[in-house]
Amino acid sequence: MRSLRDKAHQWWYFLLHPDIPPDNNLAERTLRLAVTKRKVSGGSRSMERFQDTANLLTVVQTCRRQGRSVIEFFEQAIKAIVNPKVQAPSLIL
């Protein structure tokens, strides 16, 4: 098992690379929506339901990070399901 000391050369990596944040606040904020939903709903009763919820929250968070409307994304996705001639939206830009 590696100790924290073995990773000492990585502790100050962000000082040499200003594009790397010194904390993981972005990751914490990204998880907040899922944690709050789990607390309010009491969690999922099945693995399938858990995966469905995780997929929806991934779409919501990705749209937010990209500055896109979540409602418009889902509207486009539903239109694509109903009409095969409509192009499905993508989260990959």
Describe this structure in words.
By secondary structure, this protein is an all-alpha fold. The protein is built from four helices and no strands. The protein has one domain. The termini are far apart. The model has no long low-confidence stretch (mean pLDDT 87).
Properties at a glance:
58% helix; 4 helices; extended
Helix content: 55-70%
Strand residues, percent: under 5%
User: How many β-strand stretches?
Assistant: 0
- Shape call: extended
- What is the C-alpha radius of gyration, as a whole number of Å? 19 Å
- Count the DSSP helices: 4
Low-confidence stretches: none
Query: How many structural units, i.e. domains?
Result: 1
SSE diagram, text form:
Layout: H1 13-16, H2 25-41, H3 47-66, H4 70-82
Short description:
This protein is an all-alpha fold and 93 residues long.
